[in-house]
Amino acid sequence: QVQLVESGGGLVQPGGSLRLSCAASRVIFSLNTMGWYRQAPGKQRELVATITRDGIINSADSVKGRFIVSRDNAKNTVSLQMNSLKPEDTAVYYCYARVIRPAPASYWGQGTQVTVSS
């Protein structure tokens, strides 16, 4: 079973930057989609940004122009470069991956805390 491990979370001041990374292991079939979701206390988990194996990106309007998602297909990693961070970005960020073959399945990392505060 695919396992996802996030790293890079932490405390930053508003306007600062942070890079999150996620490494997938036990990958047997291609990860069609990888990306990031986040969940703030008392709120539902929401999309941050995802990227397909061939580079199609889907991102939330709230992060467009500030966050950049990228992946390395050979290494089965995905990163999220977060710039111009705002307090509203404070959340637990979860790595996400989805496979299509042999059957559709989704995988989630354990989450990494990002806190934006002065």
Descriptive report:
With 118 residues, the protein is mostly beta strands. Helix content is 0%, strand content 55%. It is built from no helices and 11 strands. Strands 2, 4, 5, 6, 9, 10 and 11 form a 7-stranded mixed β-sheet that branches. The chain has a 4-stranded antiparallel β-sheet with strand order 1-3-8-7, with no helix packed on it. β9 and β10 (105-108) form a beta hairpin. The chain is elongated, with a radius of gyration of 14 Å. The termini are far apart. The model has no long low-confidence stretch (mean pLDDT 97).
N to C succession of SSEs: EEEEEEEEEEE
Shape annotation = elongated
User: What integer value in Å does the Rg equal?
Assistant: 14 Å
Overall pLDDT metric: 97
Q: What structural category arises from helix and sheet content? A: mainly beta
Spans where pLDDT lies below 50 across 5 or more residues: none
Number of strands: 11
